[in-house]
Amino acid sequence: MQIEHYFARIGVDPLTAAFDDIPARGHGGRGMMSPGNEKNPKVGTFAEWGPKAFVENADAPFSLYLHTPYCSHRCSFCPFYINPGRPGFSGEYSAWLSREIDDTARVLEPHFGSRKITTVFFGGGTPSDLNRDDLAKIIRQLHERFPITDDTEITVEGRIRGFTAEKAKAWVDAGANRFSLGVQSTHTELRRKLGRLADRDEIRQILEGLYASGAVVIIDLIYGFPGQTPEMLEDDIRFVAEETNIHGLDLYELKQFPGSPLAKAIESGRFPPAPDRAERGRMFGAATDLLNKYGFEHFTRKHWRRSKRERSLYNRTATGANDLVPFGSGAGGRIGSYGISMHRTIEQYTESIARGEKPISSAMPMPPRPPVPSFRQRLSFTVEACALPALEHFPETHRASAQTILEQWEAAELLVPALPGEILNETAISYRMTPAGVFWAEHLQGLLTMFTSMPVPSAAR
Ligand code: SF4
């Protein structure tokens, strides 16, 4: 392959034209495993292998993930919707969750030693659709059964409709300290098309109530919806920056999932086509300029904060190599060298708990972690921090070509040189990304992954 295959366009607007249009990879689920693991071999009961796996990382901090696979309405863009939130689901589901928490704690407790919990994340689905007292009870139970400290970040994810100030206060009283809201857009007409019912006034009022609870409040916004313009996204940011007290926000690029209601609406002509990559680049550029103007710190690749109280510990720690103990139907996690998927249907989930088992559909042995991070791991966590590894971390055979590619990307205004000796996540870095580089970050990562797994390319012509 010629080295030009990896080059960006030069002399064009890097945000909109550095590369050809590529499919967006964006809004991912938290703590959920992809389906399709259920045929993998089981490795005995959790009571048999769980303790052995858990002590593989003795003394290391760990995290908990609790999944609520119910939503009161389906959002048209979402691939994670599983069950409608029928009346009575909260009491029934939280009772099963409570049993699972007790059973899991009984197995792991003798091996806690000095291990502490860094983060607890209630994801979904819509955990905020649980009743006030049901979730408060679960949060208290976790405090009683697991080594949670005053420093543990405890996040409840949710959406505006149904998330009340009373719930927020009760959950903070029980020990939660962070709320993460999927707002996506504050434009009422667009929201309604997406299946989001609350209007802008309701968003303002709910965010006020959540802020008054004393918890850290962050929101998600998405760009790239059909009919959404850069001006609408700027208006979203102006609204949340000026009219709410949020501590931070995630900005995701819309990923279109084939077969979703949104994809069908576009295909049938009921919705206009989604903005193309160039338009999305314009949106991202406008948004980052505005966030900067409002004093938000670009904290990680898709996350900005304007208060140091926002630590984003779950995204920064639980998605790496640390143990993440999963609970709830549809959850995923890992303990020691096992990747874990939980039963996705409520029937299998509850039957398994009734038999006294952890409701795991598969526990897959994963490759051992290398003693020194591999190039791909270093690439992954530097990209997450909007940077690229130093040449010394590339395979020796590829370093000279890597230098040519990175310098070409610098000339294309995607990268700027890092300061001499700059280190992120124990990895020396060569370059930091410009806003355009951040917009194309997944593509840059994909190109470097391909580059290092192929023979050294032939020199530039
Ligand atoms: S609330 Fe969240 S999980 Fe549920 S359908 Fe909407 S985006 Fe998907």
Task: Please specify the SSE layout and strand pairing.
Layout: H1 14-17, H2 46-54, E1 62-68, E2 70-71, E3 83-84, H3 89-108, E4 117-124, H4 132-145, E5 148-158, H5 165-174, E6 178-184, H6 188-194, H7 200-212, E7 216-223, H8 230-243, E8 248-253, H9 261-267, H10 277-293, E9 297-300, E10 303-305, H11 313-318, E11 324-327, E12 332-335, E13 338-342, H12 346-354, E14 360-365, H13 375-384, E15 387-389, H14 399-411, E16 415-417, E17 423-424, E18 427-433, H15 435-439, H16 441-453
Parallel strand pairs: 1-4, 1-11, 2-3, 4-5, 5-6, 6-7, 7-8
Antiparallel strand pairs: 8-10, 9-10, 12-13, 13-14, 15-18, 16-18, 17-18
Helix pairs in contact: 3-4, 4-5, 5-7, 8-10, 13-16
The chain binds iron/sulfur cluster (SF4).
Condensed summary:
The protein is 37% helix and 20% strand. With 461 residues, it is an alpha/beta fold.
Strand order in the largest sheet: 9-10-8-7-6-5-4-1-11
What count of structural domains?
Answer: 2
CATH class of the largest domain: Alpha Beta
Name the average pLDDT. 92
Q: Helix content range of the residues, please?
A: 25-40%
Small-molecule binders here are:
iron/sulfur cluster
Number of strand segments: 18
Uncertain segments: 25-41
CATH T-level topology of the largest domain: pyruvate-formate lyase- activating enzyme
The main pleated sheet reads as:
9 strands, mixed
C-alpha end-to-end distance: 12 Å
Total helices: the number is 16
Question: Can you name the CATH architecture of the largest domain?
Answer: Alpha-Beta Horseshoe
CATH homology superfamily of the largest domain:
tm_1862 like domain
Radius of gyration, taken over Cα atoms and rounded to an integer in Å: 23 Å
